[in-house]
Specification:
- The chain has 231 residues and is α/β, with parallel strands linked by helices.
- The protein is 30% helix and 15% strand.
- The chain has one domain: Class I glutamine amidotransferase (GATase) domain (Rossmann fold).
């Protein structure tokens, strides 16, 4: 595989839950932590979304307790935030232009990361030798990925993602359309979690790299960089 030193980050377009009135969207830190890490290692980044265009930000992710140095600095950065005003459409990208794809989370992903169209793009990344990575609710994008054999991408793979206990602690169990951990298992994945909710946790199975929660985004980026340098 020819290397490009370029990574595609995919984020949600969904701004609200379907059953309740909460606002949602991208969990900003899951973008900034990954973005900053791969940039520090010399990788360029493009940002895409399922529909293209504007990306809403989950207001909870901008609460003071979540605006650490990375996220707070990027939130104040006009140039960076402008990247979220008119994103590319993920289904229109060419996998060969990138070394890896990363699915950032936020509850919005549970509504627009599933489906055959985005799944086909992800399958092209994986089957052409590229890295597929995701964090928190981002692994929702993996649920409908079918390989050329017809098998689900996650079948028999070791993965993680936002757990149901974390969903309950976040008080979103009554708002989400499904349990991510259950759906990953239903698709044949070997799902595991950290010993304690919200502990940093990353699972790597070859070129598939997943992180459990917002605090795992930088660790996912670091694992992606290590894997890219080893290829």
């Amino acid at each position: 595989m020819a290397t490009t030193s370029k990574i595609l980050i995919t984020v949600t377009n969904t701004r609200e839950y379907e059953k309740v009135g909460y606002r949602t969207g991208l969990w900003l830190g899951e973008l900034t932590h990954f973005y900053d890490c791969v940039h520090q290692h010399g990788y360029e980044v493009d940002i895409a979304s399922p529909s293209g265009g504007h990306v809403p930000i989950d207001p909870v992710s901008m609460a003071p307790e979540h605006l650490d140095d990375s996220t707070g600095r990027r939130y104040r950065d006009r140039g960076f935030m402008n990247l979220l005003t008119d994103t590319m459409k993920a289904t229109g990208v060419t996998a060969e232009d990138y070394d890896a794809i990363y699915f950032a989370g936020g509850h919005g992903t549970m509504f627009d990361f599933r489906g055959a169209a985005l799944g086909a793009v992800t399958a092209k990344f994986y089957e052409s030798g590229r890295i597929v990575s995701a964090v928190c609710h981002g692994p929702a994008a993996l649920l409908d990925v079918r390989l050329s054999t017809g098998a689900p991408l996650v079948e028999g793979k070791n993965v993680t993602g936002f757990s149901w206990p974390e969903e309950e602690i976040a008080e979103r169990a009554d708002a989400v359309p499904f349990s991510l951990q259950d759906e990953l298992r239903n698709h044949g994945a070997n799902y595991s979690t950290a010993q304690e909710p919200f502990g940093t946790y990353v699972v790597q199975d070859g070129r598939l790299i997943t992180g459990q929660n917002p605090g795992s985004a930088r660790a996912v980026a670091e694992a992606v960089v290590v894997r890219l340098r080893a290829q």
